[in-house]
Amino acid sequence: MNSETEVAPAVASILAAARERSADGHDRVSVAARSIPDAIERAAADGRVPVIAEVKPTSPTADGTRDDDPVDLAEAMVDGGAAAISVLTEPSHFGGSPEALTRVREAVDVPVLRKDFLLREDQLDVVEADLVLLIARFVDDLGGLVTAARDRGFQPLVEVHDRAELETAIEAGADVIGVNNRDLAKLEVDLGTFESVSAHVPDGVTLIAESGISTPADVRRMREAGADALLVGSAIMDHDAEGDVTENTRRLTRVAATEETDTETQT
């Protein structure tokens, strides 16, 4: 794991809290996971951009907090065409909880990602999900944690920020990789991050673009750079305005269909 001097104070605080969170008292989980590659294929076959929409009550970079019921939010996202749902389970900085994830997974029929800062194997046994996020930069034994996740039935989504982390993820056996466009030192977003890393991802990997995707133009840019799916949180949650989550989701999942319609109209 890289030094915490390379991350923003907010990220260092999140990591410190993650280290203190105990998973004692939980039995080892065993999950029959819903396939994320299959969900992505279904969305594409339906003419939708495969979007993993994120139930995120708040975050260190959000402009506000949404207190909507997580199940209502997730169902609205699925109504808007989301191929999968991401649920924050980090409580201190994102307002999430394992209980929210359980309720969401019971309510929807698409894959559900557990979004958290998982550092140790025992932290996998807190709640059942279809995918778990493993951030390459923060895990000491990534290969071991990838294996431990798979042994429980999870699909590990390994998040990277640069080519060196990509190589680490590939060496760890990751076959679902997310490239995060947010720099962890300044918390700034640059969509060029995905473009620079995605060119080096081997065939057979499910590739997900994360962070900073807020407009149809962003969607097209990430898809053209090779993204199989997009993980979108703030643009859908719309923390400051509390906008319509269904419409926010549809605006991004129906980009391809909109382009086709525009072309036909011009013709």
TrEMBL record:
InterPro entries according to UniProt: Aldolase_TIM, Indglycph_syn_Halo_TrpC, Indole-3-glycerol_P_synth, Indole-3-glycerol_P_synth_dom, Indole-3-GlycerolPSynthase_CS, RibuloseP-bd_barrel
Top-level taxonomic group: Archaea
One of the GO biological process terms: L-tryptophan biosynthetic process
Enzyme class: lyase
Species, as recorded: Halosolutus amylolyticus
Domain Indole-3-glycerol phosphate synthase: 25-241
Family designation: Belongs to the TrpC family.
Organism classification: Archaea, Methanobacteriati, Methanobacteriota, Stenosarchaea group, Halobacteria
Pathway where it operates: Amino-acid biosynthesis; L-tryptophan biosynthesis; L-tryptophan from chorismate: step 4/5
EC identifiers of the protein: 4.1.1.48
Protein's name in the database: Indole-3-glycerol phosphate synthase
UniProt keyword list: Amino-acid biosynthesis, Aromatic amino acid biosynthesis, Decarboxylase, Lyase, Tryptophan biosynthesis
SUPFAM superfamilies listed in its UniProt record: Ribulose-phoshate binding barrel (SSF51366)
